[in-house]
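Predict structure. Chain length: 267.
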Amino acid sequence: MRLRIRHVTRYTYERPLSYGLQELRLTPKSRPGQQVLDWRMTVEGGKVEAWFDDQHMNRVTLISFTGAGHEIVITAQGEVEIADTHGIFGQHQGFAPLWLFERQTELTRAGPMVRRLLRGLGAETGDSLARLHALSARIGEAVTYRVGATDAATAAEAVLERGAGVCQDHTHVFLAAARLLGFPARYVSGYLMIEGREDQEASHAWAEAHVNGLGWVGFDVANGISPDARYVRVATGLDYREAAPVSGLRFGDHGRETLAVQIQVQQ
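Prediction complete.
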């Protein structure tokens, strides 16, 4: 399946910024089952300083901006060819060792709520893949999809306590639980083509766990499936903070900041 994507991020400030830096993880790379046919990124109101691949082999664009105006517009767009691999990404590659993905983070630290979620899961099945699918289903039942129930800083334990969240939160709970079960697991950010809906308000997120004999396997808890030909992988990391589409810092009294995101994904 060939997908066309257009992702526009617009920051508007009440007063010009003194200075700021941002890391953009908005460039997908050709991977098993994914071929990038064309990709372009433009920055208005800022300056591209450098490109590099981080420890997870994500393509990162570093941009700076200073008090020349009140608005920064980042546009990423292109076409990607996707094959359906039934959620199997394959063997581990890259600079980061596999054992690193068993590490807990502030957003994925397992506590009493995660342990309670896992009760009896090992008894249900001894098969690793079936156990992970069962985990995904449990999280989907425990965490209702609801926008506004959480924010980017909400950790897995808090998500389970609230019983609601979005795809980012489902993914953090999955990572916390899978790592507690002994599986290396990572966060994936990217895009999902939704049937009958071209315009979207946000990018998508799902999890991958490493299964012996298969390698990395994807689990989209929010939709209750493994990724298929509608999914475009852009960045991976230990949690959202390492795979966020846009992250950075800014200095100075810029007043109120307004963020607007427009995403189109179509076949």
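Summary: The longest helix spans residues 128-142.
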